[in-house]
């Protein structure tokens, strides 16, 4: 028992390699340290676009963020123009996210999410679970980064499949920093 307790601080302080970076926030000069943001918590990562039939999912993602914030889930959006449905100017992307949909979860600067130029987070996700086939693919990742579940665009943020998976991850005490 003592060995387990002694190893917990080390586990909580470890950051999965794929999150060991600082990334610029959407339409900002401010950067976010993904290790500090996630700090041993499960993460829902979503590739987003401003002009997609699935763009209204921002409301559902925000609702998930609000519902699970105090329970430990971190939601992060990655705007991408990989499917040619993102604004050319980050200011316009930010307006759609923050003004039109009231997003308060972390949104990062526009980046690639598939192919050889995928950002480091999505390069990891693509390797573990496959690249997104469209906008609003959702990747639910355990706190240690070892378990990745992928949900397609048609899986809404409030779908039973996604919320059950989130609940299961949060119920597993190994996915929470103490």
Characterise the protein shown here.
With 178 residues, this protein is an alpha/beta fold. The protein has one domain: Glutaredoxin (3-Layer(aba) Sandwich). Helix content is 35%, strand content 16%. It has 6 helices and 7 strands. The strands form 2 sheets. The chain has a 5-stranded mixed β-sheet, with helices on both faces. A two-stranded antiparallel ribbon has the order 1-2. Helix 3 links the parallel strand 3 and strand 4. The longest helix has 12 residues. The N terminus is likely disordered.
CATH class, named: Alpha Beta
Question: Under the CATH scheme, which architecture would be assigned?
Answer: 3-Layer(aba) Sandwich
Q: Report the order of strands and helices.
A: HEEHEHEHEHEEH
- Name the poorly predicted regions: 1-12
* Cα Rg: 16 Å
Write out the strand line-up for the largest beta sheet, numbering strands in chain order: 5-4-3-6-7
Number of helices: 6
Give the gist of this structure.
The protein is built from 6 helices and 7 strands, in the order αββαβαβαβαββα. The protein has 178 residues and is of the alpha/beta class.
Give the SSE map.
Blueprint: H1 2-13, E1 22-24, E2 31-33, H2 34-38, E3 43-48, H3 57-68, E4 74-79, H4 90-100, E5 106-107, H5 120-129, E6 138-141, E7 148-151, H6 160-171
Parallel strand pairs: 3-4, 4-5
Antiparallel strand pairs: 1-2, 3-6, 6-7
Salient structural properties:
178 residues; Glutaredoxin; two-stranded antiparallel sheet; five-stranded mixed sheet; disordered N terminus
